[in-house]
Amino acid sequence: MLLFCAVSYGAMIFTQFNAVKGFTSIPSAIQWGISNFYPAAHSFEKLPAILNKLLETILTAIAASTIAAVFALFFSVFGSKITKVNNILSIMSRGVATLFRNIDVAAWALILLFSFGQSVLTGYFALFFVSFGFLTRAFIEVLDEVGESSVEALKATGASYPMIILKSVIPSSTPQMISWILFMIEINIRSATLVGILTGTGIGFSFDLYYKNLDYNTASLVVLTIVVSILILEYLSNYVRRVIL
Amino acid sequence: MTTLLNVKDVSKQYGQDTLALSDVNFSVEEGEFVSIIGPSGAGKSTLLRCINRMINVSSGDITFDNESVVGLKKKELRRLRTNIGMIFQHYNLVERLSVIENVMHGRLGYKSTFAGILSLYKEEEKEHAVHLLKLLGLEDQIYKRCDQLSGGQKQRVGIARALTQNPKLLLCDEPIASLDPNASKKIMDYLQNISVSMGITVLVNLHQVDVALKYSDRIIGVSGGKIVYNDSPEQMTQEKIKTIYGSEADDLIAAAGDKNAV
Amino acid sequence: MEANSVKSDVSPEKPYRHYKSNKIRVKRLTKPSLIVRLTLGILILLTVYSFITIDYESVDLLGGIAATITNFKTMFFAPHFSNFTFLQGLYAVMITMGLALLTTVFGAVIALFLGLWSAENLSSGRISNGIKGFVAIIRAVPTVLWVLIFAVSAGLGSVAAIIGMTFHSMGYLVKAYSESFEELDKGVIEALRASGANWWQIVVQAVIPSSLTYLVSWTFLRFEINFAVAIAMGAAAGAGGIGYDMFMASSYYYDLNEIGTITYYILAFAILLEIIATRIKSNLHASQT
Ligand SMILES: Nc1ncnc2c1ncn2[C@@H]1O[C@H](COP(=O)(O)OP(=O)(O)O)[C@@H](O)[C@H]1O
Ligand SMILES: [Mg+2]
What we know:
- Chain A is built from ten helices and no strands.
- Chain A is mainly α.
- Chain A has one domain: MetI-like fold, CATH 1.10.3720.
- Chain C has eleven helices and no strands.
- Chain C is globular and about 65 Å long.
- The chains are: A mainly alpha, B alpha/beta, C mainly alpha.
- The interface between B and C is medium-sized, with 22 and 13 residues.
- Magnesium ion (MG) binds at residues 44-45, 174 of chain B.
């Protein structure tokens, strides 16, 4: 416990975090928020433009997640101890996934700016890489949990390797995998906002624009649209999970 | 009678130190109902899995239907496996799929990968599957998901899946070890019926001596990877049970005695 | 066979046959399988739509991919130090770690209380739902926006980053903690209540000890996430640390080789954290069985 406090205190010094200033800033932030951070009448004129950007961001997040899921499916089948073809491929696919998910999405965006510039594609690939790494790990765990028993049974009937994967392993793991994809989309919408700020695209760009122009009313409207869309998505995902799991 | 299965000088070594089977020799005639008994760890599961090459033997030879299984290539191996049905202690069904979908899996070995993946089953294959499900008393469960079935029902699905293969031989690895006495009796009755009415050879691993005595034409006793008994149930004595089971024997004999008393 | 003789074939309807062709159906659409297909279908449609409508802005896709591969080579095979030394880099990673640690600790402490009050089995329905709704909204706002919002009054820098990240961590952990608490066996709480224990005694004696392993692993998982978030906040919200160095290398010095160095730093620490997290998780699994 003492060690823990010492480490935390060390971290405060390292990050030059002034606890007093930090905690006293919360009330003033709330006060500021109440008096400035709400959508005003003029903000709503921007709503169509904002929604447009929001749609672009959501679509990017979905596309990155689904394409990543396709790649992750292949890599996880090779990576899982239940379905692997051989050890070398298994280690390789796990390794590639580790590499991709451990470079943060913001870092990927900064790297990809060099090749794709300030475009949607930069954000798309940044989201794709991280999602691919993340989903591969998640899918491997799902496959491992399916267990060997039905694989053994199908093997004993004389079924071929692709049949075993597609008729026994995939049906058993589809619901869990869909659940992970939906989770990934939620994460990606939030990440896309961040990446948008870095790459000047999507809803992140919208927020940054109004924020830097000190138009906090409109910036708050942007935040509101993000919150609403994430809550709707969460609701839909939970419904799907309840039915299929 | 013709010999369906011949196991000759088979040994199986796991890693460096575990000799699971050593110099096993026996043969099984067509239509026979043979039980393999022995304590856990004796090598029963290993022996069964060597026959359909789920496990490769370390040395020795196995012939099934006048053909050596040991050297078979991928394609021939798949064909061999279509002729041998397998039933498992934990049923090994795809729990999320329906009964009929699981049963149809028994046909996969006969199909091209393409046809198998797209579930292109012929009408007579489906008729056969439904017929088998009726025989096994599962006609009301055809579209039920397997995770909603009882243990006994799951095992009957497992049997139906094996039978759709039109196998010559059924390998059963402790088929009743996870079931209550009632369901156990039912499953063993089904297996016996199948053997008699369909002429399918049955090779079943059992832990319970009394069950083996009741149902088998012949009993093979395995202990420490060696065959120590291979004769009809009538020849089984308490002495011999002791050589098979070692120290576990007393409990088993007591249990069997209780059953006889009732 | 006995089962066969009891149930005869004469049943008037054969529900497993197609009503027209009289063929046997193997697949029958159930609600779950329908929802699975619908979900996948919608996702595929939206993905295709997204690729059709994407604004390529005259970006050359293939050229970009080729450039990316060349850039990877530069980064990973020719990393160098030019704007900072090895030790300065390490110091920057430590700052990022510090951000992650502080925000996880602050978030965890607050979340412990809110988690207890929002667990259905430990709290009243109204308070529980109130807190859950509140943290759902907190979680829906991306961390970077929390940081930027706090930055207006606290100024861009570590203070805003820490408050903003703490906020989001708290939202995440409240959900995780309350779900862990809710898994606790009802009987245990009932038994203690019957023996006259008050709420705090129940919490300290039963609830926390029995869910401790979950709490620890969720907290560490959040720490892992916060390390990544801290890098991002360095890059996007001026919070300092290795993320800020990366932002500078990318946007001001255009120094790919140095980005390579920074990527190695990030990878080393992130993989280390992941290995620890995996260990903790497998311990969890072991203690469950
Ligand atoms: N995959 C394996 N790897 C290593 N040893 C094994 C493996 N499978 C079984 N064994 C060992 O081989 C011996 C026989 O096991 P098994 O055939 O499962 O016996 P039984 O089915 O009679 O209980 C045991 O000592 C067991 O520990
Ligand atoms: Mg066994």
